[in-house]
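TASK: fixed-backbone design
INPUT:
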């Protein structure tokens, strides 16, 4: 069914049932996905998907749910079941109705519609990455490439309506020289023009080649030079902790930190609903509020939490256009650029480690931001400004607050990062961080 007509039907049903507020969002998307292993294509598929999300509120109660049955009859049944569920819920302690005024949205720009019809390009681009990895020294590579175009339509009971769209292409490639020598490369972009599979493959292959005979480091305190891939993982988690929902729940290290120093003075973090090059551009949030650019950290000081209507009412603030109806979240994160180059940053390291990739970031205490993460796929010991050998088998432990407060240098160059360890697209430089604890992940530590 046509998304506009589907939303109109859903709102009509909600009003008939007696809902005070209702929002219908129908999102349809096209995705081309390719997986490869041992330098060969293993899976290729095209998916056309659609989902409708329904929000209902009445008498201080609210409910939200999603369905993939995009027919008038099924939507009617779904809205009715949601309404019955809501009636049996308890009233919320803090409830914010939709604004009485309406907004009209008609997204334009920042979208590459060719990514919705890229069945021919996807295999060719994967082949470019594989060839670049092999040229750089890899014996075999595996990974995935996804290209998608998504269009969303919103209609609310207060008259807010409009459409939005986003596009993205994302490559992850992991290359191997032997079982224990691997490297990871990625490239992501909102457009084909900004996508660089050759560089992603080159990095994966060169990292893998350099990791032959890598050994664990001595346990101790090191300077860490974090690649954009690693830095984005930690930055995106900080963005999640800036959600007023997490703060209110007490599961954020940013509780009671507004106006206080939470990072070094050279560190700035902003969330953007829309910006040039972003992968998850949105002109409206899930409550039909216009998105904006919100400075989370400025000069190392926490300036704002991210709000929807309900958290804004509870915190006596204004919504920042970051709804999720249930909880606010980030759209696209940006860390401000520094003034250093990669080589200069390495030269500044007396006793440090370069990290190019990581996974399994886990928290031992959300309230204090204490975590550990496991580096992989390219790590190098730096002594007196020179890379001396490759490293493997280690774990990094710290707290996000201490780590970001110890950022010494940031690179001029920045990269967009999104992959399975980074849900929120993040534009980030290399970061040089002082005084981080590193232990061996296996074997004995002195």
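OUTPUT:
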């Amino acid at each position: 069914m046509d998304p506009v007509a589907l939303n109109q039907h859903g709102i009509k049903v909600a009003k008939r049932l007696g809902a005070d507020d209702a929002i219908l969002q129908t999102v349809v998307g096209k995705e081309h996905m390719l997986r490869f292993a041992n330098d060969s294509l293993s899976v290729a598929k095209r998916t056309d998907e659609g989902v409708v999300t329904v929000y209902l509120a009445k008498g201080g109660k609210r409910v939200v749910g999603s369905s993939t049955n995009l027919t008038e009859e099924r939507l009617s049944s779904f809205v009715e079941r949601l309404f019955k569920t809501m009636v049996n819920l308890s009233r919320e302690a803090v409830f914010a109705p939709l604004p009485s005024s309406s907004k009209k949205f008609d997204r334009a720009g920042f979208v590459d519609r060719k990514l919705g019809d890229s069945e021919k390009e996807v295999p060719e681009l994967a082949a470019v990455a594989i060839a670049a990895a092999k040229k750089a020294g890899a014996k075999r590579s595996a990974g995935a490439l996804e290209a998608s175009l998504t269009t969303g339509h919103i209609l609310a009971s207060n008259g807010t309506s409009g459409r939005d769209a986003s596009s993205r292409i994302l490559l992850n490639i992991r290359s191997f020289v032997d079982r224990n020598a691997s490297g990871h490369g990625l490239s992501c972009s909102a457009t084909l023009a900004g996508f660089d599979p050759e560089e992603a493959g080159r990095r994966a292959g060169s990292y893998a080649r350099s990791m032959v005979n890598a050994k664990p480091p001595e346990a101790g305190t090191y300077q860490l030079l974090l690649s954009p891939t690693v830095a984005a993982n930690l930055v995106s988690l900080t963005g999640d902790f800036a959600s007023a929902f997490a703060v209110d729940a007490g599961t954020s290290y940013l509780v009671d930190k507004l106006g206080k120093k939470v990072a070094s003075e050279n560190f700035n973090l902003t969330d953007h609903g829309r910006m040039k090059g972003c992968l998850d551009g949105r002109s409206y949030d899930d409550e039909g509020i216009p998105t904006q650019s919100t400075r989370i950290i400025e000069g190392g000081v926490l300036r704002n939490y991210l709000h929807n209507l309900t958290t804004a009412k509870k915190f006596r603030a204004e919504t920042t256009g970051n709804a999720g109806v249930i909880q606010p979240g980030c759209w696209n994160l940006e860390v401000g650029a520094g003034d250093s180059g990669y080589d200069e940053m390495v030269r500044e390291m007396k006793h440090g480690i370069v990290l190019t990739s990581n996974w399994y970031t886990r928290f031992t205490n959300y309230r204090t931001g204490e975590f550990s993460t496991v580096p992989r796929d390219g790590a190098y010991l730096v002594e007196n400004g020179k890379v001396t050998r490759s490293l493997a088998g280690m774990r990094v432990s710290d707290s996000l607050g201490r780590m970001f407060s110890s950022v010494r240098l940031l690179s001029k160059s920045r990269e967009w990062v999104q992959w399975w360890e980074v849900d929120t697209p993040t534009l980030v430089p290399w970061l040089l961080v002082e005084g981080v604890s590193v232990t061996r992940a296996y074997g004995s530590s002195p």
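COMMENT: Residues 3-210 form a domain with the PmbA/TldD fold fold (CATH 3.30.2290.10).
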